[in-house]
Structure formats: structure tokens, C-alpha cells
Amino acid sequence: MLKARQNIGKYRIEKRLALGGFAAVYRAYDTIEGIRVALKVPHDEHVTVDALRTFRNEARLVAKLDHPNVLPIKDASIIDDRFVIVTPLGTATLLERWQRRMTMQKRLELVEQMLAGVAHAHDRKIIHCDIKPENFILFSGNRIRLADFGIARFARRTLHGSGSGTVGYMSPDQAMGRPSLRSDVFSLGLLIYRLMTGHLPEWPFEWPLEGHARLRRATSGDFISFLQKSLELNPRGRYADAAEMLSEFELLRETSLQTGKVRTTVRQARGTTRRRRVTPARRKHQRVR
């Protein structure tokens, strides 16, 4: 383990932020650029010639990603005989953030950004394979970025093979060694459900899930249907990818929260009948018209 005030290349270690089975993460000060960054340093036993070759290929894929909701890799190289991955430093992980109070509106804003980041990668046929709250990093202005694109894939192959991931957020098909864009959709569904209810669904994922009553009180029927489709056990019943998931979310976001009385209206959106939330402001506007 690196220690506080230890130097590694131009970086001065300030504190360890996290420790996992694959790597340790540190906050460090870049003595040349004068900024703080995050350093991810894989454990020595995982840094083999074959592993580095695999990561190099993954890093080339990730280099194609350029999106405000995807955390970029500033550098990935050997420094002082250690393999070091350098990224911008955020303020907290999503796991740390949701342990403090957050309005439902703020949660929905984060959901949209989370979907946008994964959709950007899916458009380029890149699967993340390890979507979890620790891999979403918050920055100032309520900006959230998904970390470890490529790193997650590299660690997955290095540690366990194709059937690995973080158990709590892994789809059944990924657990069986068949990761796909749709398995990322399932993981997003689990993460969003926990963000909105405080409960992480568990196998066998039968509805109503724990926390469903809170979800029903706080959100619309359309939003619950959106989550149900994301969490279909059969991958073919889910959204094809995060881009399709984002498109559906954008259609229903305005009426996702229980902010007024409900009435049923016909909305021509993909040929379906949707429930529309009528707020006091809308009722006033309707009376004026």
C-alpha cells in the first residue's frame, strides 16, 4: 500500500480513498499541474504482461468515449514500477452521497445523467459489466460520471473470467457468463430502484419488490413500469440498451413524481396510453385556457 506523503512520479499521495480486490484508490496531488487527482493502483499480483496487454486494448476502446457523464482516464502508465491509472478527482461516490438526504427531483436528475453516460458507451458497443454506486462519481454542480469503463472489463477478466461482476448489481445472465448491453440495463434498473427507494432488490426479483410501497407513493405508474421492464429476468424482455432506456425515461420524466392528482389521458408515445400527472400549476393553466 502507498502511504500519505509518499511520492510516485509527479504525484504526492494524500490519503487512501478505497480498497478493493483489484486495486486501491488514492487521492493525490499533481505537483506539476497543481491539481488533485484520483490514482487507481492495481495490486501487484494482477499486473502481469498478459493483463497489461488486455488493459491496453480496453483503454483504446475507452479512449473513444467523450461524454460529460463518463469519467475520462487522464493517464495509464507504469510509474516507479507500479501500474497507475489517473482520473479527475470527484467529491464523493454515489454510495456516499445517497447516505445523506436528497430530494426525489435530485435523484431523477442523477438517473438521467447515469443513463446518458452508459448510453454513450452502448452506442459504441462497449459494455461496462460492473455498474454499481461506487463506480458513479459526483462532481460539483450535481454532475455525475461513470468510472471504470475499460478498467471494470479489465479487472473482470483478470480476476474471475467472463461470469464476474459485483453480485448485488449483476444480472442473472451476466452471472451465468453471458454479459451484454442488456445486462448493463438490468444493473442500471437495480441501481435506480435502490436510489429511489433505499432498497436493493434481491433474487428472485419478484414484484412487488421490497420498497415498492414507497416507490408507488413517490413516483408514477409509468416510472414503475419503466423499472419493471429494466428488471425483466429474460434479457429479451428488457430494453435493448441504455440508449433505449434513456429515450423511454425522457418521455416519462416530467410526470415521474407524484406531485398532484392523477387523471388518465391518451398520449401518443409509441402507441401506448400513459398516465399523466396534473399539478396545481397545470390545473390553473387549464382553467385559464
The Cα radius of gyration reads 21 Å
Low-confidence stretches: 159-164, 260-289
The CATH topology of the largest domain: Transferase(Phosphotransferase), domain 1
How many H/I helical runs?
10
Largest β-sheet summary: 6 strands, antiparallel
Topology pattern, helix = H, strand = E: EEEEHEEEHHEEHHHHHHEEH
* β-strand amount: 15-25%
| Helix amount | 25-40%
| Strand order, sheet with most strands | 1-2-3-4-6-5
CATH architecture of the largest domain: Orthogonal Bundle
In CATH, the homologous superfamily of the largest domain goes by the name Transferase(Phosphotransferase) domain 1
So what's the overall shape?
globular
The tally of structural domains comes to 3
Overall residue-averaged pLDDT value: 83
- CATH level 1 name of the largest domain: Mainly Alpha
Helix-strand category: alpha+beta
Number of DSSP strand runs: 11
Ends distance = 68 Å
Word description of this protein:
- Helix 1 runs antiparallel to helix 4, helix 3 (104-123) runs antiparallel to helix 6 and helix 3 packs antiparallel against helix 9.
- The chain is built from ten helices and eleven strands.
- The radius of gyration is 21 Å and the shape is globular.
- Residues 159-164 and 260-289 have low confidence and may be disordered.
- It is of the alpha+beta class and 289 residues long.
- It folds into three domains: 7-88, Phosphorylase Kinase, domain 1, CATH 3.30.200; 92-257, Transferase(Phosphotransferase), domain 1, CATH 1.10.510.10; 259-289, no CATH class.
- The strands form three sheets. The chain has a six-stranded antiparallel beta sheet, with no helix packed on it. Strands 7-8-9 form a three-stranded antiparallel beta sheet. A two-stranded antiparallel sheet has the order 10-11.
- Helix content is 36%, strand content 22%.
